[in-house]
Specification:
The structure holds two protein chains of two kinds. By secondary structure, chain A is mainly beta. In chain A, about 0% of the residues lie in helices and about 55% in strands. Chain A contains no helices and eleven strands. In chain A, strand 5 and strand 6 form a beta hairpin. By secondary structure, chain B is mostly beta strands. Chain B contains no helices and eleven strands. In chain B, strands 2, 4, 5, 9, 10 and 11 form a six-stranded mixed beta sheet that branches. Chain B has a five-stranded antiparallel beta sheet with strand order 1-3-8-7-6, with no helix packed on it. Chain B starts with a strand and ends with a strand. The chains are: A mainly beta, B mainly beta. At the A-B interface, strand 4, strand 5, strand 9 and strand 10 of A face strand 5, strand 9 and strand 10 of B.
Chain lengths: ~120, ~120
């Protein structure tokens, strides 16, 4: 398996622009997570899905952030409009409730977002 | 409020020694506790999971303990090597139900093993 795939790996944009981050989870996983990591705040959970349904979006900082999971193999995190304080590394992770490793999460390589 | 605290300072040890990392939590009743390793520029990688009814779990040179009374987990790396240098994150998982599947991560401890 290729693992969790994220694109783009790096994104540089100007304040006010729309940013879309993409994630392909591991096939067969029923949970998908979006995290943001910064030096100041560490690894923060933004939103997570179970079977394509959003379960908890309490970590989404504000209405400028939105996430979708139209099917089991694809999710997007959108920021519109972007601001410099959104600069961070965004990770997507997936996990499965089956098997012996309950809740072990598999992380993607991350998208490094810089908003100028 | 709920809080997870890991070693506040970076940890520097000599090769061959045992590294001990701490994860303390308050106002949680986790069903599971996990440890992850993160290298610069990469996503966290799962290492070990320990359940609330387990006291200790081992995997090769790694050992994790879980004391629900003290609300603490210790993560040990024996015979440490420079390749063990990384940031180590603990993550708490609540009981299944409303929070099923959701992990809350600590800020991590950066370990440097010197040759």
């Amino acid at each position: 398996d290729a693992g969790v795939i994220q694109s783009p790996r790096h994104e540089v944009t100007e304040m006010g622009q729309e940013v879309t981050l993409r994630c392909k989870p591991i096939s067969g996983h029923d949970y998908l997570f979006w995290y943001r990591q910064t030096m100041m705040r560490g690894l923060e959970l933004l939103i997570y899905f179970n079977n394509n349904v959003p379960i908890d979006d309490s970590g989404m900082p504000e209405d400028r952030f939105s996430a979708k999971m139209p099917n089991a193999s694809f999710s997007t995190l959108k920021i519109q409009p972007s601001e410099p304080r959104d600069s961070a590394v965004y990770f997507c992770a997936s996990s499965s409730t089956g098997g012996g490793s309950y809740n072990e999460q598999f992380f993607g390589p991350g998208t490094r977002l810089t908003v100028l | 409020s709920q809080k997870i605290e890991q070693n506040s300072e970076a940890l520097n040890i000599q090769e061959g020694k045992t590294a001990t990392l701490t994860c303390n939590y308050t106002n949680y009743s986790p069903a599971y506790l996990q440890w992850y390793r993160q290298d610069p520029g990469r996503g966290p990688v799962f290492l070990l999971l320990i359940r609330e009814n387990e006291k200790e779990k081992r995997k090769e040179r790694l050992k994790v303990t879980f004391d629900t009374t003290l609300k603490q987990s210790l993560f040990h790396i024996t015979a440490s090597q420079p390749a063990d240098s990384a940031t180590y994150l603990c993550a708490l998982d609540m009981c299944p139900g409303a929070n099923a599947g959701k992990s809350t991560f600590g800020d991590g401890t950066t370990l440097t093993v010197k040759p």
